[in-house]
Amino acid sequence: MRHITLSDGEWILMEQLWEQEPRTLANLVDGLKESTSWSKSTIYTMLKRLEEKGAVHVDDSGRFQQYYSCFKREEAQKRETENFLEKVYHGSLRMMLAGLTGKKGLSKADVDELHQFLDNMAAEQEES
Fold first, then answer.
1. Strand partners, 69
2. Coil, helix or strand for 72?
3. CA–CA dist 56, 17 (Å, integer)
4. Which of 16, 44, 111, 122 is most buried by a 10 A CB count?
5. Is the backbone peptide bond immediately before 22 cis, with ω within 30 degrees of 0?
6. CA 6 to each of CA 26, 79, 128: distance values in angstroms, whole numbers, following the listed order
């Protein structure tokens, strides 16, 4: 996936697509009315922008245009996390963990969970 930067608003709209695809404009307006105050024209403009970025594909072969995401949520999450890590912590996972835990520290359960996660990663690397 080439890197596509999503604004906060675009991320909200993409979440709707990732939840259920395809979606029509009316489906998206209905799905976003509770969490946003966006008008139909605002959502349409965002969809056009997302299409230009390559984040959304439009199928207009039917009665209503159907909108699809061009990549999975997990791909976007991974890319956003990598960009955040690089931009804010210069790629250092250790610095990020230290920054996120701060003075509060980690509970024993948090440390145990991190140990398990790291052990699993190490085991996967050894198998490769």
1. 56
2. coil
3. 9
4. 16
5. yes
6. 22, 11, 33
Q: How far apart are CA 96 and CA 88, in angstroms?
A: 8
The CA dihedral of 93, 13, 6, 51, to the nearest 10 degrees, is 140
Q: Which residue has the tokens 């490769």?
A: 128
Quote the tokens at residue 27: 């489906």
User: What pTM was estimated for this model as a whole?
Assistant: 0.78
Q: Tens of pLDDT along 66-116?
A: 999 999 999 999 999 998 999 999 988 888 888 877 767 778 888 888 888
The answer on 58 and 95 residing in a single domain is no
The residue assigned the tokens 């990020």 is 96
pLDDT tens digits, residue range 35-55? 998 999 999 999 999 999 999
